[in-house]
Amino acid sequence: MKKNLDHIGVAVRNIDDSISFYKNILGAELIDRYKSDAVGVESEIAIMEVNGARTELLAPTNNTTSPIAKFIKQKGKGVHHIAYKVDDLDDALVELKARGVRVLADTLRTNKHGRRLIYLNPADTEGTIIEYCDYPHCL
């Protein structure tokens, strides 16, 4: 199955400072900024774009339950995940299962932009958090 880099997710402590850095130093454009209070997300997200390449800045909104807060506490701020766009997420899940790669089933969701996503189990990816995603309702 064909895969393309979709975006890189970066865990940050202060989203305003991070947006400023991306805009003023990297010349990024702020594409969107929103909060997700969904269980297992609990983050503020800023989508930044530099010459077509997207980075999601992820700041925890709940320092007790947000997975981003947990990540920062354990590993510090920095690259949280790498997302790969697949043609069809359902087909990709079948392929992963056939190859013995587990996913974190509770992370399966559709975000506000219509992107369906799921995270692969880091125990099966050499420790890297990898997201698979598709855009079934977008052109």
Automatic annotation (TrEMBL):
The keyword Transit peptide does not apply. The keyword Metal-binding applies. It comes from the Bacteria. InterPro entries: Glyas_Bleomycin-R_OHBP_Dase, MeMalonyl-CoA_epimerase, MMCE/EMCE_epimerase, VOC_core. Keywords: Metal-binding. Residues 4-135 form the VOC domain. GO terms for biological process: L-methylmalonyl-CoA metabolic process. Pfam families: Glyoxalase_4. GO terms for molecular function: metal ion binding; methylmalonyl-CoA epimerase activity. Coiled coil: none annotated. Belongs to the methylmalonyl-CoA epimerase family. This is Glyoxalase. The lineage of its organism: Bacteria, Bacillati, Bacillota, Bacilli, Bacillales.
